[in-house]
C-alpha cells in the first residue's frame, strides 16, 4: 500500500457508491483516513471509512458533517465535494418547476459552499489543505433537454471554485475542479433507464441517445476509478503547484480545450 496521504483526514461527500466510492477507496489506499457521507449507510463498508449520514439538499447537514469531523479528528486536510446529481426531469425550461431548480442548486452548488465555509477555518489555521469540487462537462456543454438546471448549478460551482482558489492560494490551500463526462455509475444507468422508459425505447437505444448527444471520441463511458485516479493525484504533494484549474475527464467529449 502506498502511504503518500498517511496521517491526512479526507472528506468525500456522496462517498458510498459510484465516483464517490471510487475516490474514497483510492484515498484510503494511499493512507488517508476517509470520512464519507450519504443519505443512508452502505450495506457493507469493506474499507472502514468513517460514515456520517447527511442529506445535502438540507442546509443543516453541512454543520452536522463539519462538527462531527472536527470533534473526532480535530482537523481536515482534504475535502472532495463529490455529492451531486441531476435531480430534475428532461424536457427543457417548461418542464422545470421552482422546486426542481431549488433542489438542483441546493445539492450541486450550495451544499459545497456550506461545507467549505464551515471546514475552511480549520485548513486556514493549519495553513494547508486541498479542496476538489466535482463538476461535470455539462457545465460547459449543457444539454437543454436533459441537464438545464443541473448544468447551471455546476457552472456556478466552476466559477466559485476559481474564485476560491484565488482567495486561498496565499493561505496554503489549493482548490481544483474535476469535470467527468459520461461515467458508468448506478446513477448514470438509472438516468439512461429513465430516458428509455419516458421515450418508450430500449435501454441500448437510450444509451446511444446519450452518447450521441455528448459525443465521446473514445466511444465508451469512463470507469469511476479513472476519475478517482486523477483526484488522488491532485490532492497529493505531487500536485502542490496546481490550483484554480478545471480538469475534464470526458474521453474527449468537450469540443474545445
TrEMBL record:
Q: What Pfam family is a match, any one? A: adh_short_C2
Q: SUPFAM superfamilies from the xrefs? A: NAD(P)-binding Rossmann-fold domains
Q: Where are the transmembrane segments?
A: none
Gene3D superfamilies, per database record:
NAD(P)-binding Rossmann-like Domain (3.40.50.720)
Family, similarity comment: Belongs to the short-chain dehydrogenases/reductases (SDR) family.
Q: What protein is this chain from? A: NAD(P)-dependent dehydrogenase, short-chain alcohol dehydrogenase family
* Organism name: Pedobacter terrae
Amino acid at each position: 500500500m502506498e502511504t503518500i496521504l498517511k496521517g491526512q483526514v479526507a472528506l468525500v461527500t456522496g462517498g458510498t457508491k459510484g465516483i464517490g466510492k471510487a475516490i474514497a477507496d483510492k484515498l484510503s489506499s494511499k493512507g488517508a483516513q476517509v470520512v464519507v457521507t450519504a443519505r443512508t449507510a452502505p450495506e457493507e463498508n469493506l474499507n472502514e471509512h468513517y460514515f456520517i449520514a447527511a442529506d445535502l439538499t438540507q442546509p443543516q447537514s453541512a454543520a452536522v458533517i463539519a462538527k462531527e469531523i472536527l470533534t473526532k479528528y480535530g482537523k481536515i486536510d482534504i475535502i472532495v465535494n463529490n455529492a451531486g446529481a441531476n435531480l430534475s426531469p428532461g424536457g427543457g425550461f417548461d418542464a422545470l418547476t421552482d422546486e426542481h431548480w431549488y433542489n438542483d442548486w441546493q445539492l450541486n452548488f450550495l451544499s459545497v459552499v456550506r461545507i467549505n465555509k464551515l471546514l475552511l477555518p480549520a485548513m486556514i489555521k493549519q495553513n494547508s489543505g486541498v479542496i476538489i469540487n466535482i463538476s461535470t462537462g455539462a457545465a460547459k456543454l449543457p444539454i437543454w433537454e436533459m441537464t438545464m438546471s443541473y448544468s447551471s448549478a455546476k457552472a456556478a460551482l466552476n466559477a466559485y471554485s476559481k474564485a476560491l482558489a484565488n482567495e486561498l492560494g496565499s493561505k496554503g490551500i489549493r482548490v481544483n475542479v474535476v469535470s467527468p463526462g459520461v461515467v458508468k455509475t448506478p446513477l448514470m444507468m438509472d438516468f439512461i433507464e429513465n430516458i428509455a422508459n419516458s421515450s418508450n425505447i430500449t435501454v441500448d437505444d437510450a444509451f446511444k441517445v446519450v452518447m450521441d448527444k455528448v459525443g465521446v471520441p473514445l466511444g465508451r463511458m469512463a470507469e469511476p476509478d479513472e476519475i478517482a485516479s486523477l483526484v488522488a493525484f491532485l490532492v497529493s504533494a505531487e500536485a502542490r503547484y496546481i490550483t484554480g484549474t478545471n480538469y475534464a475527464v470526458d474521453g474527449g467529449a468537450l469540443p474545445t480545450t
